Amino acid sequence: MPEKKKFLLRIDPALYDALERWAADEFRSVNAQIEFLLREAAKKSGRLGRQREEESTRLSPRNDATEEE
């Protein structure tokens, strides 16, 4: 598996707190929750390639089977 890209993210503390609670509700780290949300948005907008989408789904720590089509 290729190494993940690292970058610094500046975020409003209130938004971080909300993400932290949301991540805890879904048994994810904040980092994994942010990545999950970004991946879902990229898929929904058609900006994530098919091969990357399949790879991400396979490697996802939590695979939601309820996809809207």
Summarize this structure briefly:
This is CopG-like ribbon-helix-helix domain-containing protein. One of its GO terms (biological process) is regulation of DNA-templated transcription. The protein is mainly alpha-helical.
Write the layout of secondary structure elements.
Elements lengths: L12 H13 L4 H15 L5 H10 L10
Protein name: CopG-like ribbon-helix-helix domain-containing protein
Radius of gyration: 13 Å
The amount of beta strand, in percent, is: under 5%
Helix content: 55-70%
CATH architecture of the domain at 13-57: Orthogonal Bundle
Low-confidence stretches: 65-69
The average pLDDT score comes to: 84
Query: How many DSSP E strands?
Result: 0
Helix segment tally:
3
Task: Enter the CATH topology name of the domain at 13-57.
Answer: Arc Repressor Mutant
User: How far apart lie the N and C ends?
Assistant: 29 Å
Q: What would you call the shape?
A: globular
Order of helices and strands: HHH
| Class by alpha and beta content | mainly alpha
Main sheet record: none
Region (Disordered): 44-69
Protein name: CopG-like ribbon-helix-helix domain-containing protein
Organism: Allomeiothermus silvanus (strain ATCC 700542 / DSM 9946 / NBRC 106475 / NCIMB 13440 / VI-R2)
